[in-house]
Here is the input.
Amino acid sequence: FGKSNWNDLYYKNAKIYGVNLGITGGTERANFRFYGTAMKNASNADETALTKYNAYFAINMMPFNWLTVSSFLNAARMDRDRNRSLRDRFAEVRYLPDFSNPLSPNKDNYQLFLNEYNKVVDDNRNNLLNGPLALNFKLMPKLNFNTAVVFDYNEGLRDAFYPTTLMDGVNYVSGFFGYNQRFGLN
Here is the structure.
């Protein structure tokens, strides 16, 4: 099998970052807040990572002394870069490989595997959108009426494709889309 020197290809320095931006402004009768963030958490092994984005916008308005309108909108997205583990892939596709010729720990042979793995599609994404629109009526000093319309939407997507060059002439394709949505009136 040659020298066991694959670790330079498997373990690498990984960039991680976090960027945040927030702005708030307004008066007693109308104010707002915006907040945005982008983050990447990465592992130094097998180029795994989780990238997250979030945007939040809130606004409060008092067009009349007896009416307050409040709302916010929150949106988020997460992208996951999964590992290239043979065990995880074989479990997912329910494929039993030929173990008579295992993958060599040699750097050159491992690089050939990584070159074939560049043909793989493995997209993992979650999206979220939620928020309310609330109204507060002050009809009399001790009589308030509150109402709100709320919504929440989440979706998860997974697209996977493994070519025949990785699995002895057998390829694998999988697509998944799941969602959850709620709507309410309080």
